[in-house]
Write a structure and sequence with these properties.
- The termini are far apart.
- The chain is α+β, with helices and mostly antiparallel strands.
- It contains 2 helices and 4 strands; from the N terminus they run αβαβββ.
- Helices cover 36% and strands 26% of the residues.
- A hairpin with a 2-residue loop joins β2 and β3.
- It has one domain.
C-alpha cells in the first residue's frame, strides 16, 4: 500500500475514533526513522497509534 494511502486510512480511523494517533512523549527518542514515519495531524507529528477497544 502506498504511504499516502496508508496515512489517509490511519487519519480516517483516528477521526472515526477507532484508533488514536499519538506523539512520542520524549522528543529525545525521536530518531530520523521515527520522524520520517510520523503522520502530521492537526499540525502535530504523531509517531504511534493505540487501538481503541
Amino acid at each position: 500500500m502506498p504511504r499516502q494511502q496508508l496515512d489517509q486510512a490511519l487519519v480516517a480511523l483516528d477521526r472515526q475514533a477507532k484508533i488514536v494517533l499519538m506523539p512520542l512523549d520524549d522528543p529525545s527518542t525521536i530518531t530520523p526513522e521515527r520522524e520520517a514515519a510520523a503522520i502530521t495531524l492537526s499540525g502535530a507529528k504523531r509517531h504511534f497509534l493505540r487501538i481503541r477497544s
